[in-house]
Amino acid sequence: MAEEEKTIPKVPKGQPSIKVDVIDPMHLLQYDACTRCGECENWCPALDAMDKDLAISPKDKISRWRDFMGKSYGLRAKLFGAKAIPEEDIQKFNDNLFYCTTCGVCGSVCEGGLNTIEMWEATRQQLVMRGNGPYGKQSLFPKLIGEMHNPYMKEQKDRLLWVPDDVEIADDSEVAYFAGCTAGFNQQVLGVSTARVLNHLGVPFSMLGEDEWCCGSALIRTGQPHIGDTPREAAIHNVEALEARGVKKVLFACAGCFRAASLDWPRLMGREPNFEVVHIADFLAELIDQGKIKWEKSLDNKTVTYHDPCHLGRHVGVFEGPRKVLSNMPGVNFVEMERNRDLQRCCGAGGGVKAGIPDLAMGISTARIKDAMDVKADILSSACPFCRRNLGDGRDSVYGVEGTNFDLRDNEENDMQVEDLIVLTAELMGLSTKIKSQEE
Amino acid sequence: MSEAFSYYSGIPTFTVMIGIAMVAVLIFMVGIILDMKKWGGGSVSAFLSAFVKSATKKGHPSIIKTIVLDILIQRRILRRSPFRWVMHMLIFIGWGGMLLLSLVFAAFEMLHELGIGEFDLVSVRDSFDTPNEILGYLLLVGLVIAIVRRLAISDVSKGTEMFDWVLVLGILFITVTGFVAEGYRPDTVSAWSFMGADAALAEAMALFHVLISLLFCIAYIPFSKYIHMIAAPLVILANGGGE
Predict the structure, then answer these.
(1) Does A316 reach chain B within 8 Å, measured CB to CB?
(2) Which of A337, B40, B225, B228 fits as disulfide partner to B167, beta carbons 3.0 to 4.6 Å?
(3) Is B2 part of any domain?
(4) Which residues from A are below 8 Å from B74, CB to CB?
(5) What is the value of ipTM here, to two decimals?
C-alpha cells in the first residue's frame, strides 16, 4: 500500500505511538539485541511452510517492532514527540506475529540467546490489548475457557465420562493425573491409556475430575491471558485443588498442560506449587531404570521415530525420557529424524495456529511428516495430543487419506502410523486402549 | 621524531581529542539512558532491577562462565556457523582490541599531560604500532568477509537492509582511514607506507580518523545496530547464557 494511502493516526503529545507496558524489560531489551544474522530464518517452520515469506521471519518481525519502539521512545520522539505509525503497518505486523507456532526454535539457534517464546507471547498480548490481535478463531478461547473451563464447549461434569469401569481412580493418593481438556474430551484414548498404564503398574492415582480446569495454555500462547485473568485464576484453582488433596506428584501426558504447570502456573501465581510436576514419559523412564516395566507385546521390528513436542522439549527441556521409553519397547528400531531435540521442527499446531490458521498448521505438519518419511519411519510417535492430532492430519494429507475417524484412522491406507507414546505403551503392555463408549 | 608527528598528544590537538571524546561519551550516555528508559517501560531503574533479577536467577550458570563462553568466545555462533564465527570474531577482536589499545594510550597521554610518571610517550605509541596494525588487518578481513557474505549469499543478501550496511560500511570506512593515517606517517611501520610520508596529511588524517571513530563507534552505538554490542551480552547474562 502506498504511504499516502495509509491511515496515519495522530499521536497525542507526550504519548507513545505504541505502548509496551505489558512487555517485560528483558523482552524489550531483546528487540535491540538481535544481531540480524538470519540464522532463525534457516530454521523457522512457519517460514518454510510459507515459501520463505520474509514478512513472517523472526528477524524481520524483530526489526519492525524495534522500529515501532524507536518511533515511540527514541531520541527524536523525546525531542519532537512520538512519530505516528500507520495502522496498516501495526495490523500487518500483528498478523505476521500470529503466523508463528511459538515453537521457539528461533530462540534455540539465536546467536544472541534471545528467549523468543515469551517475547512473542508478550508482544501478542500487547497487540491484543491494543485491539489488533488475536487471529481468527483464537478469539473464541477467552469466552470458552473463561466460562466453560475448557475450549471444547463441554460440561465440566463430563470430564471423566471416558473412564471405563475397570479403571481405578483413588480418592486420595500421593500421585495425581492431570488429564487436560484434550484427553478428557477430545482424544480420550490418551486418558484411557494413561489411566490403564498407571493401574497396570500399580501406581495409585487420583484425578480432579470436574474440579479440573483448563490449564490456560491456549490463552497464554495467543496473548490473551489478561482477558478475565483466566489463566491466573485457573492456575490458582488447579494448584490449590491439587494441594488440598495432599498430592505430592502430578503426572501430565499432555505437553501443553505440562508446560503450563511447569512454567506458567508458578509465574502467574508468584510461587512454586507444593507438588512435583512430572511428564508421564519421564515417569515411565524412571520406572524402566528401576526395572519395573514389563512388556507383553512387541512391535515386530518396526522403525519408530520420535517427534519432540515443543512444549515438552524446547520449552521445558524434557528430551531423553520419551526416547528411553520408546527405545525400551520390544521390537523397536528407534531412529532419529534429522531435526531432533532442541532443533526439532514443530508439528504446526502450537501458538494457536491450529485454531487460527489451519492452512499454516497443515503446511508445517506435512513438512514434519516428510522428515519422518526420510528416515523410513513406520511409526511417528510423540508425547502431546496436539502433535498427535496435527501430525495425524499432516500424515493423512501426505498419504491422501480423508474423512477417517481421528482415533481410528491408523488403517491400511496409511503407510505411517502416528501415535502417542502413552498409547503405544498401553498397547505393548497388552492393555486395551478403548474408552468407555467403545467398550459398551 | 618531530613534534608534528606526536599527533593526538600535545596542546592543542590533545585538547581537541579530549573534547571530541567527551562529546562522544556524552551522546553515548544520553543514548544509553534513553535506551534503558525504553527497555524499562519509561524507567531506568525498572530496567536495571529487572536485569539484576534475571541475571541472578537461581539455576543460572556462573556469570564468569557465561562471560567467557558466551560473550567472549561466542560459542552460540560457533555452534551454528563456524564461518560466521570466524567473521564475527575477526571483527570483535579487531574492533575491541583497538578500542582497548586506544583507551590505554589515552590513559598514557592523560598521565603525560598531567605530568605524572616518567615515560616517553612517543616510545609508548610506537610500541602499539604493530599490535594496532595486526588488529586493523583482523578487522579489515572480518569486514570484507561480512560484505562479501551479504553480497554473495542469496538468502543473506535478500534479508540485508540499510540498517546492516550502515554499520559494516561505516566501520570499513573508519578502518581504511586508520590505515591511510598510518600510511602518511613519516616514521610508519605500516604496509601502507606506499602512500608516501606527509606529516601534515598524517596529522589531519589522524584527527579525522579519531573524530569519526569516536562519533561512529562510541556516540552512535545507542542509536544504531551497534546497540547489539551492549544489548546482546546483557540478554545472554539475563537469560543465563548456555547451550
Answers:
(1) no
(2) B225
(3) no
(4) 111
(5) 0.91
CA distance A250 to A263: 14
- pLDDT tens, A20-78? 999 999 999 999 999 999 999 999 999 999 998 999 999 999 999 999 999 999 888 88
Per-residue pLDDT tens digits for A348-397: 999 999 999 999 999 999 999 999 999 999 999 999 999 999 999 999 88
Question: Whole domain around residue B186: which residue ranges?
Answer: 21-238
Point out the residue among B38, B163, B235 whose CB comes nearest to the CB of A73: B38
Provide the sign of the torsion angle of the four alpha carbons B63, B68, B69, B73, taken in this order.
positive
Test B232 with A33 for CB contact under 8 angstroms: yes
**What are the chain B neighbours of A37 within 8 Å (beta carbons)?**
77, 84
CATH code at position B26:
1.20.950
Of B47, B81, B236, the CB nearest to A113: B236
Nearest CA in chain B to A21: B41
Contact status, residue A282 vs residue A312, Cβ threshold 8 Å:
no
- Strand, helix or coil at A251? strand
Any domain includes B1: no
Q: Do the strands A417-420 and A276-279 form a parallel or antiparallel pair, or are they unpaired? A: unpaired
Contact A25 B40 (CB under 8 A): yes
B74 and A111 Cβ atoms separated by less than 8 Å = yes
How many separate domains does chain B show?
1
pTM above 0.90, yes or no: yes
Report the chain B residue with the minimal C-alpha distance to residue A343.
B80
With cell 511428516, the residue in question is A369
